[in-house]
Amino acid sequence: MPAAVQxxxxxxxxxxxxxxxxxxxxxxxxxxxxxxxAATTASATTAxxxxxxxxxxxxxxxxxxxxxxxxxxxxxxxxxxxRNVMRESSGNPNAINLWDSNAAAGIPxxxxxxxxxxxxxxxxxxxTAYDPYDPVANITAACHYAQHRYGSIDNVFGAx
Length: 160
Fold this sequence. Notes:
Layout: H1 5-27, H2 42-47, H3 58-71, H4 78-88, E1 96-97, H5 101-104, E2 109-110, H6 117-123, H7 135-150
Antiparallel strand pairs: 1-2
Helix pairs in contact: 3-7, 6-7
């Protein structure tokens, strides 16, 4: 094989390997992975669970919320919640918006789904913490609000 062809094939192989790895990593949350950090130690993984037994990460918070929502007849899917969480907070349960009109009015949006305090109070779901920064409480309250306003969190495709 000519020497000029070999480096191109090597670059192509590396590019494809990197692209495939990136696609696999991006697909993890979409296919229901329980943890994006599979390389963590067993002790760290077992210590990182909620009192309800779900993993203490975005995947576990969504799954715990969905279980509570099913008990309370609040509609929503994993994909609908995940899509909205990524848009609103990028998965940060401590996110707070200090610059929009709500913040200017003294009621900043908080948590995974950026809920303001009056909305959280009105749509809080019993059985969850009364804390807008609690991931499960935030997701569940936001989905309860979305049910009343839009029919389901699945119908929300922008700021709400």
